[in-house]
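Inverse folding, one chain.
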């Protein structure tokens, strides 16, 4: 990780972009053909939320692990456990680097994680950014 000047405006912009991307991704029809795109996009929106937390604190991550780790530190009530986002990272990795093609059940499960976890996490991220205390 590299330390920079905290950038609240950029953090807010990243969180807003994540929300737009999630809204679009949830509008896609869940099929095996669209599965790779849906899973990649959902993972990326969660990573963006974690990245927004880091940017607000002036930290530049050099990998995908740190933003997800920061996101998982948030204390939020969700209908699905947020640690499942870590599973999405591994699934996306298999898709990108090993040509894995997700089954429809995996796509539907990923959509369920997104529908049950994104909004509470997004709200918590926005709240922390706006409070100027992105990391505790």
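Residues assigned per position:
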């Amino acid at each position: 990780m590299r330390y920079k000047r905290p950038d609240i405006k950029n953090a807010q912009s990243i969180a807003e972009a994540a929300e737009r991307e999630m809204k679009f991704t949830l509008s896609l029809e869940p099929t095996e053909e669209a599965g790779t795109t849906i899973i990649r996009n959902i993972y990326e929106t969660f990573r963006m939320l974690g990245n927004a937390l880091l940017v607000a604190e002036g930290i530049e991550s050099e990998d995908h692990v740190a933003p997800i780790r920061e996101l998982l530190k948030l204390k939020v009530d969700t209908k699905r456990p947020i640690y499942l986002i870590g599973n999405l990272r591994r699934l996306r990795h298999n898709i990108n680097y090993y040509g894995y093609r997700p089954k429809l059940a995996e796509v539907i499960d990923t959509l369920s994680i997104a529908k049950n976890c994104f909004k509470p996490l997004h709200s918590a991220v926005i709240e922390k950014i706006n409070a100027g205390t992105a990391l505790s």
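The radius of gyration is 15 Å. The chain is about 70% helix and 5% strand.
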